[in-house]
């Protein structure tokens, strides 16, 4: 109350001084000037009164201090801030979808790695199955190799064209045996036997010439052993120059 009273007294004094000065020269001052002077006096009184009274100052001039100048730069900055906030909100809304997509990608990569590992395991298993018999066979001693001879066939039904191929080694394996001769003897039949595993022999017919009777004949024998490996050898039918066939 004391501050309001003091402010009122000060404001009244200012107004009184202004009007006292103005009354002396009122006859010489135009009406518009007098109105301007009156407005100035009112404003000055309000200023003085508001300085002395805080409550009055807040009610009278608070709206002025609450105003905010909006410049072009500030408007642009506000728009940029709003855009950033909107982008941040949009990004936050996309986080669940991005996480779900990443989870699907990780799952697909895990399935691909699992399939690749399964294929590698299958190949390794297949290789072990394929090579296991070969390894086992390699640790076993081989069966004996055949020993071949070509002889003249003897008997009541034999003639000069009858011969035989003999394998003399027991337990030897000889499959798909084939016999070839040089030009001194012509084989007249197939010269082939499905199985001559020893000891056994196979008969064949051939026509031998005079040089073959005297000097002998060379033969080539080809067969497949117990491992399915082809083998070959060369044998001879000795000639009998003093006692030809």
Per-chain topology:
Blueprint: H1 2-24, H2 31-52, H3 54-66, H4 72-139, E1 148-152, E2 162-167, E3 175-181, E4 185-187, E5 192-195, E6 200-208, H5 210-215, E7 217-224, E8 230-237
Antiparallel strand pairs: 1-2, 2-6, 3-5, 3-7, 4-6, 7-8
Helix pairs in contact: 1-2, 2-3
Protein model, in words:
The protein is an alpha+beta fold and 245 residues long. 54% of the residues lie in helices and 20% in strands. The chain contains five helices and eight strands; from the N terminus they run H-H-H-H-E-E-E-E-E-E-H-E-E. The chain has helices spanning 2-24, 31-52, 54-66, 72-139, 210-215; strands spanning 148-152, 162-167, 175-181, 185-187, 192-195, 200-208, 217-224, 230-237. The strands form two sheets. The protein has a four-stranded antiparallel β-sheet with strand order 1-2-6-4. A four-stranded antiparallel β-sheet has the order 5-3-7-8. A hairpin with a 5-residue loop joins strand 7 (217-224) and strand 8. Helix 1 packs antiparallel against helix 2 and helix 2 (31-52) packs across helix 3 (54-66). The radius of gyration is 65 Å and the shape is rod-shaped. It starts with a helix and ends in an 8-residue tail after the last strand.
